[in-house]
Design a protein that fits this description.
With 336 residues, this protein is an alpha+beta fold. It contains eight helices and 18 strands.
């Protein structure tokens, strides 16, 4: 396996050029093994920084340690007045004793650091590209760019996380331990499901959209609660502090690669095809101009681009021709 070590280091140091960031993201998404290697780098990077911080806080009084060693040796010599210890042997004893003193201090510091590290909360932050993280209970989270996720030291007992930004999360089911997500404006509680939470600083609304299962969504401001199921969404207006059930599921189509769900509400065929192009490496050419303005509302789950086109074909009565990475749509009419 070819690991782009230099790119990963530059990424962690926030110095990786944008074009290389996209290449690194593609490498991570190529296989689960690549993503695991990437996470190992992140853990090593965080551990090294913590070690440096711990080292700065650790002060070792070398002179005091040597004085204690000398005192011990002098005491032993006083008890053995008839025995003369040559200087070079005394210096050897000093070196060994000092070494043992350093070793003791180092081991103590390492044990203290490891103990503190195991108790420290875990946090993750994405920059210009997203990343996967795996929680201790095997729950997997996709973090969109500029997103923060953190969980407490007692996560294995209480499955609670905090977040800001946008995530898609697939929660491992555990009836005995509900899973809770807290953002700035919402609190979401689940047993086991997959859903999207979006609560960013830039947007006037926060959203929760369920891909599978059932979740309970409550506001932080006044405790208003709504339970939503697969295919449903709620929105929280940050200005009016009002939580409401959406008439149609919120569009999180940009997360299609992770959610495997596409939602369209009164979208034109032209806009729908443009979205499919954005989500793949293919091109879709519409030859019949009137078809572009046809309206579609619907949902696709676990469908490839070709399967979506085939599903739309009988509705709008068009033909599909493919050449290399291009689909040509001929004929067709709006469904009156």
């Amino acid at each position: 396996m070819n690991i782009p070590t230099e790119d990963i280091v530059q990424f962690l140091d926030s110095s990786l050029p944008e074009e290389r960031q996209l290449a690194l993201l593609q490498w991570r998404q190529d296989s689960e093994e690549n993503e695991l290697e990437f996470q190992k780098f992140i853990k090593t990077w965080e551990a090294s920084h913590k070690a440096l911080e711990s080292k700065e806080q650790l002060v070792i009084d070398i002179d005091s340690a040597l004085d204690k060693v000398n005192s011990t040796i002098d005491s032993k010599q006083a008890q053995q007045q008839s025995k003369v210890v040559p200087f070079y042997k005394r210096r050897s004893i000093l070196s060994i004793a000092a070494g043992l003193a350093f070793l003791f201090v180092a081991l103590f510091a390492m044990r203290q650091f490891n103990s503190d590290a195991s108790l420290a909360p875990q946090s993750f932050t994405t920059t210009d590209i997203g990343q996967y993280i795996d929680l201790p209970d095997k729950t997997r989270i996709w973090m969109e760019p500029h997103t923060e996720v953190a969980y407490a030291k007692d996560f294995n007992t209480n499955r609670n996380i905090t977040m800001q930004g946008e995530i898609f999360i697939d929660v491992l089911r555990d009836v005995e331990r509900p899973f809770t997500i807290a953002s700035k404006h919402l609190q979401v509680e689940v047993l086991g499901t997959s859903f999207v939470v979006s609560d960013t600083e830039e947007e006037d609304k926060a959203h929760v959209s369920v891909i599978s299962g059932k979740v309970s969504v409550a506001t932080i401001s006044n405790g208003t609660k709504i339970i939503i199921e697969k295919g449903e969404s709620v929105s929280y207006n940050k200005n009016s502090m009002h939580l409401s059930l959406d008439d149609v599921q919120t569009d999180f189509n940009h997360l299609y690669k992770y959610t495997k769900v596409l939602n369209f509400n009164n979208s034109t065929i032209e806009d729908l095809f443009k979205r499919l192009e954005q989500l793949s490496s293919i091109s879709i050419k519409i030859e019949t101009q009137s078809l572009k303005d046809c309206i579609f509302t619907g949902r696709f789950t676990n469908k490839s681009i070709r399967e979506i086109l085939e599903a739309l074909k009988p509705i709008y009565k068009f033909d599909i021709y493919s050449k290399n990475k291009e689909y040509i749509i001929r004929g067709g009419t709006c469904n009156k």
